[in-house]
Structure formats: C-alpha cells, structure tokens
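Bug #77: duplicate submission created two jobs. Keeping one. Sequence:
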Amino acid sequence: MTRSRRRGRRARRAGRRAERIAERFLRRRGLETLARNYAKPWGEIDLVMRDEAVLVFVEVRLRGPGAWEDGAASVDPAKQRRLSRTADAWLREHPRYASDASRFDVVSMSGTHFFSSKEWIADAFCADRG
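Kept job's structure:
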C-alpha cells in the first residue's frame, strides 16, 4: 500500500471518529440523532439531528495541528451548496420532516488528544432550499 493511500485511510478513520465524538457532544446538549453519514453522489451530510422542533444538518470538520483555517471557515459556498442539495434529498426521502424548521450547524474540531478543541456553530450558514 502506498504512503498516500495509508494517509487517506488514516484521515477517513480520524474523520469517522470525529463524527462519533461530535455526535456524543451534541447529544449531551440535548440533540437527537436521526441519521448518520447520509450520502448522495454530490455530497454527504455527517449527521441529521433534531434540536427540539428544529431539524439540524450537521457538518463535522476536523483540522490537524497547525491548520491555516478552522474547520468552520472551510465550509465554503460550494460546500454549502452541496450540503443544501443533499439536505433537500434527505427531506424528499423523509417527507414527514419537510415542513419543519431547519438549520445547518458546523462542529469544528482540532487537537491531537481526542480532538480536545470543539466549537459548535449553530446556524452556521443560510441555504436557500426553496
């Protein structure tokens, strides 16, 4: 196995671990998990959760030590459009939630020891999903 494949595999494992930690972090704050890793060819939503009456689409961003930007800043307009399109697909597949209020949150994590730094940005960006 090449070095780049091993590095990619390690990054995917770290990303999945970060998603599990983020989910526990949000559940401790009262959110309920509805779905994990909802994927379409154009994008993936890491977590779909409920915060009381609000549907929450969560993007988990992991940044290693020395990263130039935090995870939230890396959710650029193109990523926001992919997330919005994927959220629309999830809502079409789960029509009972289609009329609920919704938002997009970002959980940004960094650090080498159990992702010691966590930042939860509720309503991180607006998406026109009309």
